[in-house]
Amino acid sequence: MSNATFLDVTRRRFLTFASSALAGAVLTATAPVLAQSRARQATSKTPKKGGTLKVAIAGEPPALDPGFTTAGITASTMWHVFEGLFTRSSRHAPIPHLAERYEVDQEGTRFIFYLRKGVPFHNDQEFTAADAAASLKRWGVVAGRGRMIFGRVDKVEETDRYTVTVTFKAPTGLLPEFLAERDAIMLPRDIADKAGKQRLTAEMAIGTGPYKLVEHKVDRHLRLQRWDKYVAREEPANGQGGKRVAYCDEILFIPVPEPSVRADGVTTGEYHFAEALEPDQYPNLKDSPGVEALVVKPSSQVGPHFNKKQGLFTDVRLRRAVLHAVDLEQIMIAGFGRKEFFRLGPEMAAPETPWFSDVGKEVYEYNPEKAKKLLQEAGYKGEPVRWLATKEYAYMYNMGLSFKDQLAKVGVNIDLQVMDWATLVSTRSKPEQYEVFITGHSTFVHPILQVYLDSTWPGWWTSDKKDHLVSQMLAEPNPDKHITLIRALQQLQWEEVPWLRCGETFNLRAIRQEIVGYENPPNWYFWNCGFAT
Amino acid sequence: MFVYTVRRLVLMLPVALVVSTVVFLLLYLTPGDPVGVMLGPEATEQQKAELRAHLGLDQPAPVQLLRWYGRLLQGDLGSSIFLHKKVTLAFLERLEPTLMLTLFALLFSVMIGLPSGILAAKLRGSWFDTATMLTAITGVSMPTFWMGLNLIFIFAVTLGWLPVAGYQPLARGVWEHLRYMLMPSFTIGFAQSALLARMTRSMMLDVLSQEYIRTARSKGVAEIWVLLRHALRNAIIPLITTVGLSFAVLLGGAVISEQIFNIPGVGRLLIQGVARRDYPLVQGVLLIIAAVYMCVNLLVDLTYAVVDPRMRHSD
User: Fold this and answer.
1) A139 located within any domain
2) Which structural domain, as residue segments, surrounds residue A210?
3) CA B83: distance to chain centroid?
4) What's the gap in Å between the CA of B38 and the closest CA on chain A?
5) Is residue A87 part of a domain?
6) Is B42 near chain A, with CB under 8 Å?
């Protein structure tokens, strides 16, 4: 997911509040994991049934359909309602969820999914292979990742009432990684067929999750109610997977665009949980009675993406020059203020995941002399570099300022263009209009899910070597062989520098101490948690 | 009077046309489109292009403008791209919070501004006068959001008397409603009361120095009646304009207050609309707001006629 950010929201922002919806969206998607600095003491206690959990979210979800929009806030709120065939374990690896188990042939061309029996949708219909097949097909036309996978699919068949077979034209062993993403939702067949490419409306929000949607008042709240007929898996909870229990009667997701109000709301007990807070608020929250401040890691990696289709940065020497010209720690301090809220490193996935590697650390160095030499070799003569920034995500602007300042010292002339988020998103798709923009991406997903690997995504990383590695990874059904391929991809990322990964930032959240069972995962969820007895 | 009213009503039409055209053009000249925001940061270019076509956003601007006029003629303000509902309905759903916020703010501004202005004029040069005017200048100069955040810190976070933010509709009980409305309406009402106090003071000073006031005093009219019946009655006409304009300003102020205090009113609807480039919503809501402004102006002018008989005859 692009765009980390919690930190991005400054007070100045509220006039241009636009962002908030986005911020939320974004944030939560990229949102973060286990608070390692402060393990929650309350997690061992079992919550009681009942109560209304009030969650302050950073913005209004732009849609209720995680298949339709890639906005993280939609996925984070609605995955209490919708579930997929797979979800992720505490190590972020895919594990079956609505699928009981699956089989794959050695080539990775044929998957057989055996579904769990007796799982009811919120409309009381039982979830069967017909629903799964229709939902997979819809995912294949509506979601970006779904389309990519379905480009390789030969056919999807209901083998029997509880079995679905997916046959591929080309080996696609990595399928479970994609199905564990939150956009691959299972819907009743009639709804999946009817919605097709269009977004689901509130009435169509029928899933199998522990909570059902009962009310959506835009900008006021999203009200979920416990689904009493929920059938959970029997294994103990494992990350997002395993047994899910809905303890609260209701969950209210309340969009609160101003981060200080979100934090104050948790301090006074108005809300029980707030996401996407600012690092500046950390000391206060830490000292507030009844409140726990949660630093979430892993979270998201941030840095500038270069326009590699047109203009100056088509020359890899210039991209490398930027890498060596700046002190990345200073850049991250400019973006995120406190050292507790970031870490540096060359990795594509965080150390907490199975995909971590430190390959490339040797090129990840601050060396202005080398930068000057590269600039000279590339024949750079002070041409202005159009650098897109927005104050709606403050880190993008603040990091941009630090880049401008440091790059000026080696003679690079940055033209920092400040605009609102909606403008930035549209401008970054136009190769003739810019050279650089900053954004963020999750660090707790398999690197193949990084959106910038797609050569049509803004920045346009086209590389035969990259495409070859990606297709090898996509085909490989054995997860153990992936780390070798990931290392090679990471090495390539530091050679070709399609973007400059500056480091990883951590999200900040706050929770009331009366809420127990919450484990602070990268993407928050509220099953298995509730009010203390 | 009747002719005057009708003429004013008819004149509102071209103004509405200009407003809607200007708003339309401004939005289309602004880069960015709703599709990128709706589909999220990782959407593919193909998905964006398809949605753009589905929403009719790939049509040239003049075609879209004509469509908008066509619907307008049928009394249809169109449907919001994001909310999946008619703009008129979206507006009406958000009206209660904004209306209540504006009314309470107006109440605050009149209750504070009018008496303190009158007293300051009466006690001109006294410590009260100085203190009132100092407060007024502070009130006018203080940014609304700063004041709002400070009120939250004092009354919600430190004292815990009032909720930090949010909204409870009137239907949930008057007290509950008031608890949520107090800080946001005071925040914008206070700044406006400062302006009103200054206006009242100077109007009253003008009137109090006139001869008929001296006459009233010399014939033994009690000072309170001199102030309220003789002076205020004459000072109030320009003040009505100020109060009327205040209503409009407060509606505008509601945008910021709604943002800080997380009130789901028209102001937030509009800001969200702009941020998401929800063209039909922004156009429709701005048109309605323009119509409200025009109606308020008209009402103010008509009130003149009621308060000041001279106006009726001059028509």
Assistant:
1) yes
2) 82-245
3) 24
4) 5
5) yes
6) yes
